[in-house]
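pipeline stage [seq->struct] | target=LacI family DNA-binding transcriptional regulator | organism=Paramicrobacterium chengjingii | residues=366
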Amino acid sequence: MTRESVTIMDVAREAGVSKSAAARVLARNGSASATTHERVMKAAAFLGYRPNQLARSMKSGATNTIGIVVPDVIIPFFSAILRGVADNARAAGFEVLVSNTDNDPDIEERSLELFAEKRVDGIAIAPVFQQDPRAILRLADEGMPVVLLDRRMTGLEHLPLVSVDHVDAAEKAVAALADLGHERIALLAESAPALARLQELAESSSSHPHLSLLRPSAQRIIGYLRAIKRHGIELDEDLIIHSGYTTTSAQEAVERFLASGIEATALHATNAVLTSGAYRGIRSRGLSVPEDMSFIGFDDQEWTTMVQPEVTVVEQPSQQLGATAATVLTNLVRGAAADPLEHLLEAELLMRDSTASRVRPSIRLA
């Protein structure tokens, strides 16, 4: 390989870093860790790379763009986050590039690398849950400002998080049902870790460091456990219904539960998708809301105020979440520290007519 034929990709491969990281180091533009800088410069010297080749082909200075990576832009929760990010970022002088991952870790990795190659100044991401979030870690280690949206996982504890307080959100809903006199309160949630582990965390401090490493669905189960304990209600594991993350799965799970004969006077569904399925499941069994069963959903979806009775919901401050994430990220880009490391926003309980005091016996369906 001649000196003239050595490319930026060759240097990146030799150094074991991304192309974008090598580009930032060799162009002396943007941030990179000391370790990354040393590896790139050693690789460039070993291969005989001429830094001025890159310098002639790249713009100097920041791009005034940030990237945002979400699982599904169609979901209203993430659409509202995008709006909050875009409005706040533009006010701060940044434009926004968006990527949709479909909850696929390979798509996420390609999206992150593409954003890095486009030399965005920072990235906000609602990460795909996986054992090894190497793509996020690599960019962060190379000096890219990264802010997590809605969730984090093991390995990303050092990155700033902007999220709704998932534990408190579910606790509010279940406490409201308990205050209405309900003691047999069912919860519809996605699959979660062993209930014994969640009970341990429910009994620990509200600021337990492991809470933010759990999926939002697991955190909401903890909120349920805390609410019933606070109201002196004994836990019945049969009242926790697990469902896949589809409307159909949620409907079928609720229908099976209602057909099982397990007593219940109220139900809380812990996300927007499950809320739609749960409501259909209740109505498909011929039950009236709230006469036969009180119901609280999640997220103020358009349909929740179009049905009769209107549905009580836990409303997440989605647009505010996006705006907060943009503020944290642009501050990081400008050199500020991530302090605090965790921003938890409070959800609001919107009480409507799908909830009522318990005045009828518990439901027993066969």
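stage status: PASS
auto-comment: Residues 76-91 form the longest helix (16 residues). Residues 65-163+318-345 form a domain with the Rossmann fold fold (CATH 3.40.50.2300).
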